[in-house]
Amino acid sequence: MTQAERSLQLTNALRDAGVRITRQRAALLEVLSVADDHPDAIELHRRAEIASPGISLSTVYRTLTALEEQGVIHRHQFEGASARFEHANADHHDHMIDVETGEVVEFCSERIEKLQAELAKELGYEIVHHRMELYVRKTQN
């Protein structure tokens, strides 16, 4: 999905939720549409503040909640950190969280996906939904 398509999707989701698109919210939506990391609300506020000075942190939180309720962003609560946000339309992936820096790394592994499905099947289940979070530290070579 392009940045313009993401921006339109986010805008339409807010409108569908009955939320007015103010200058401050438009700036936040622009920041969200280009974010390819997993920023928290404070970081999103910092980025939006550059484009729209005066945006309140409460506006950021209310807007994120509305977008999450509309299903266009996902909230991740990684252990020991504030909630992080990402686009909901991304392909399935899992996360590694660096315990020293807080960096979030996305990854996909067909081997892991296959093994999870095999394990569930062996135990008489099918996977409906899952998420994997690995808490990691860079190795010293």
From TrEMBL:
UniProt KW Cell membrane keyword: no
Record-level GO BP terms: negative regulation of DNA-templated transcription; regulation of secondary metabolite biosynthetic process
Signal peptide from the UniProt entry: none
Required cofactor(s): Mn(2+); Fe(2+)
CDD domains associated with the record: Fur_like
Residues the record lists as binding Fe cation: 92, 94, 113, 130
GO terms assigned for molecular function: DNA-binding transcription factor activity; transcription cis-regulatory region binding; zinc ion binding
Keywords for this protein: Cytoplasm, DNA-binding, Iron, Metal-binding, Repressor, Transcription, Transcription regulation, Zinc
Subcellular location: Cytoplasm
Cellular component terms per the entry's GO annotation: cytosol
One Pfam entry name: FUR
Binding note for cofactor: Binds 1 Mn(2+) or Fe(2+) ion per subunit.
Statement: the UniProt record of this protein carries the keyword Chloroplast: no
Assembly and binders: Homodimer.
Family: Belongs to the Fur family.
PANTHER family according to UniProt: FERRIC UPTAKE REGULATION PROTEIN, ZINC UPTAKE REGULATION PROTEIN
Name listed for the protein in its UniProt record: Ferric uptake regulation protein
Record lineage: Bacteria, Pseudomonadati, Pseudomonadota, Alphaproteobacteria, Rhodobacterales
